């Protein structure tokens, strides 16, 4: 496909909806719904996530095939279940962590510390000390303050600079919280050179569930120019970390990983072969592999609108809907669709997870909801707020 004709520099800033349709080439992987239904029928004590590890393996293969030069380092936060991590280890993935609890989990599974990337740009001092003592070598920074902090603890740390890059067309922009802007990056590079710190790479995150491949191209070009600046200052850049953000199919169209790969591979040609290139996919690796199953605990009519209350809500793992993610949901009913307001079981008024969600009118107490592509950022978010149990994770 003449991708570059489609993702021109001009278009990469904003993709109109009709252009997005061209990208909707995503091949679907999903656990067998009949298997999911049978699991719920046979035993149900609380909400559960069913993960099919064959799909996790398939996603790793697909990622690597689409971007042969890029080694995926799974973002543990997306789903830190040890059974999922073991599959990723078997498939040869590396790892990216946000905290030392994630580090300990990986170490307990035999992952070598030197290959673990501590990509949280702002880390507690004691976490950096602990990670360094366990053998972690690579640390992200995105400010002069963090540069000073990490180097004061581990003078020979290998550092990578997280830069701010466009998050246009991403369902979860991350750019406002993290990432050095151009002037800040210049200051960080100059300080690193003066301190003789090993600022060895550049990283970025295009935003989670990124539906605009142009974000990667712009970010890789920006990174290339930073490599040049680093070299001029006597630093030795050798790592490019193209982050996470690879999207999965929900309600909106998405570009396939192959399409993103074409953009990335072509942009990477500007980097010499000895530059190590890695990525940090989270959602992409595990989302399609999971069905989240929960149950209606009650229904009500309020001001003429139908409400359903589930045994899992915002605090039980269904939280991404509050930021606009629209899941595809199946049920066992076939009545005509009406607009439902869907709430969680807690007494907190913010625990409403979907509004005007079209679902069968005959849904009632005791019915199951099967939420598709929910393997990422569901169980990982869940808490015991109000005394409700954490969802179970069933791995097949
Ligand atoms: C530093 C970092 N890397 C990778 C990821 C994974 O992103 P995604 O799940 O969108 O691939 C995240 C998500 O927040 C992140 O913060």
Identify the CATH class of the largest domain.
Answer: Alpha Beta
Say how many strands there are: 18
The CATH level-2 architecture of the largest domain is identified as: Alpha-Beta Barrel
**Gap between N and C termini, in Å?**
36 Å
Query: What are the bound molecules?
Result: pyridoxal-5'-phosphate
The number of helical segments is: 13
Assign the structural class, choosing from mainly alpha, mainly beta, alpha/beta, alpha+beta, or little secondary structure. alpha/beta
Radius of gyration: 22 Å
Q: What proportion of the residues is helical, as a percent range?
A: 25-40%
Q: What count of structural domains? A: 2
Major β-sheet annotation: 8 strands, mixed
Question: Could you name the CATH topology of the largest domain?
Answer: TIM Barrel
Bin the strand percentage: 15-25%
Low-confidence stretches: 1-22
- Provide the residue-averaged pLDDT: 92
Backbone shape: elongated
CATH H-tier superfamily of the largest domain: Alanine racemase
What order do the helices and strands come in, and which of them pair?
Elements: H1 3-6, H2 9-12, H3 17-22, H4 33-42, E1 48-51, H5 53-66, E2 70-75, H6 82-90, E3 94-97, H7 100-108, E4 116-118, H8 125-133, E5 138-141, H9 144-153, E6 158-162, E7 170-172, H10 182-195, E8 198-203, E9 208-210, H11 214-232, E10 239-241, H12 257-268, E11 276-279, H13 283-286, E12 290-302, E13 305-310, E14 329-330, E15 337-343, E16 352-360, E17 368-371, E18 392-395
Parallel strand pairs: 1-18, 2-3, 2-11, 3-4, 4-5, 5-6, 6-8, 8-10, 10-11, 13-15
Antiparallel strand pairs: 1-12, 7-9, 12-13, 12-17, 14-17, 15-16
Bound molecules: pyridoxal-5'-phosphate (PLP).
């Amino acid at each position: 496909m003449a991708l570059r004709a489609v993702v021109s520099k001009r278009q990469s800033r904003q993709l109109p909806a009709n252009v997005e349709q061209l990208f909707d080439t995503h091949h679907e992987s999903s656990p067998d719904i009949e298997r999911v239904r049978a699991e719920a029928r046979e035993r149900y004590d609380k909400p559960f996530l069913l993960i099919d590890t064959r799909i996790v393996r398939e996603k790793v293969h697909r990622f690597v095939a689409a971007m042969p030069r890029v080694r995926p380092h799974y973002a543990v936060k997306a789903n830190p279940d040890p059974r999922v991590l073991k599959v990723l280890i078997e498939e040869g993935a590396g790892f990216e962590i946000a905290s030392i609890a994630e580090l300990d989990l990986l170490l307990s599974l035999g992952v070598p510390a030197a290959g673990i990337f501590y990509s949280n740009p702002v880390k507690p001092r004691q976490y950096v000390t602990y990670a360094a003592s366990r053998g972690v070598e690579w640390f992200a920074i995105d400010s002069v303050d963090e540069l000073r902090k990490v180097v004061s603890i581990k003078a020979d740390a290998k550092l990578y600079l997280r830069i701010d890059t466009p998050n246009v067309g991403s369902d979860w922009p991350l750019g406002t919280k993290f990432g050095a802007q151009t002037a800040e990056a210049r200051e960080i590079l100059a300080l690193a050179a003066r301190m003789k710190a090993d600022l060895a790479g550049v990283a970025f995150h295009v935003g989670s569930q990124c539906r605009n491949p142009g974000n990667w191209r712009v970010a890789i070009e920006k990174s290339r120019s930073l490599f040049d600046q680093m070299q001029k200052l006597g630093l030795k850049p050798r790592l490019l970390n193209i982050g996470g953000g690879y999207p999965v199919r929900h309600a909106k169209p998405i570009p396939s990983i192959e399409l993103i790969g074409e953009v990335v591979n072509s942009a990477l040609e500007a980097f010499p072969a000895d530059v190590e290139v890695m990525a940090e996919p989270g959602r992409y690796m595990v989302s399609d592999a999971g069905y989240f199953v929960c149950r209606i605990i009650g229904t009500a009519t309020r001001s003429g609108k139908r409400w359903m209350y589930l045994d899992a809500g915002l605090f039980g793992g269904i939280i991404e809907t509050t930021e606009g993610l629209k899941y595809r949901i199946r049920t066992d009913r076939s009545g005509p669709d009406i607009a439902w307001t869907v709430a969680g079981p807690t007494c907190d008024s913010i625990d409403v997870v979907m509004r005007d969600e079209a679902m069968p009118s005959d849904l009632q107490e005791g019915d199951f909801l099967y939420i598709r592509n929910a393997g990422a950022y569901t169980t990982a978010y869940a808490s015991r707020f109000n005394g409700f149990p954490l969802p179970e994770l069933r791995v097949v």
